[in-house]
């Protein structure tokens, strides 16, 4: 079941908040390392300095992990777009198979196809300009 735009926005906001918290935590940790290293007199024998050096040495590079997460989310977004485009293609091919015209002229039909593909690409439900109008009972 595809996600709605609101669900997608909530997931994106949650991910950005987690990344921000992780960056703040990492910044605070490195600030603590710098504060201790600036005031420590015995850097070679201080256990805290050794622990900080090991921590700095073995902390994974955050840019690689963040880039992987960004690419994974981008691939998920592109997969959703591809699924929506496939749905539009299937709908158009079924209409063609049944002989249902999209519009009166070739140019109008091309416009309908462009609008539907653009809607599928952007994930927004924009009103189809060639959809039949609902009856207006308030004349």
Automatic annotation (TrEMBL):
Q: Which residues form a coiled coil?
A: 65-95
Looking at the keywords, is Coiled coil present?
A: yes
The highest taxon in the source lineage is Bacteria
Task: Tell me which UniProt keywords the record has, alphabetically.
Answer: Coiled coil
Q: Please identify the protein, giving its name as recorded.
A: Uncharacterized protein
Q: Which organism is it from?
A: Nonomuraea rubra
Name the lineage: Bacteria, Bacillati, Actinomycetota, Actinomycetes, Streptosporangiales
């Amino acid at each position: 079941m595809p996600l709605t735009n609101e669900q997608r926005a909530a997931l994106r906001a949650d991910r950005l908040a987690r990344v921000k918290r992780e960056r703040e935590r990492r910044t605070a940790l490195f600030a603590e390392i710098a504060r201790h290293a600036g005031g420590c007199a015995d850097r070679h024998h201080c256990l805290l300095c050794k622990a900080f050096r090991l921590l700095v040495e073995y902390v994974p590079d955050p840019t690689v992990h963040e880039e992987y997460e960004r690419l994974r989310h981008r691939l998920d977004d592109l997969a959703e777009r591809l699924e929506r485009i496939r749905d539009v293609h299937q709908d158009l091919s079924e209409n063609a198979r049944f002989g249902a015209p999209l519009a009166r002229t070739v140019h109008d039909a091309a416009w309908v196809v462009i609008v539907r593909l653009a809607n599928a690409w952007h994930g927004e439900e924009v009103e189809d300009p060639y959809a039949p109008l609902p009856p207006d009972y308030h004349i």
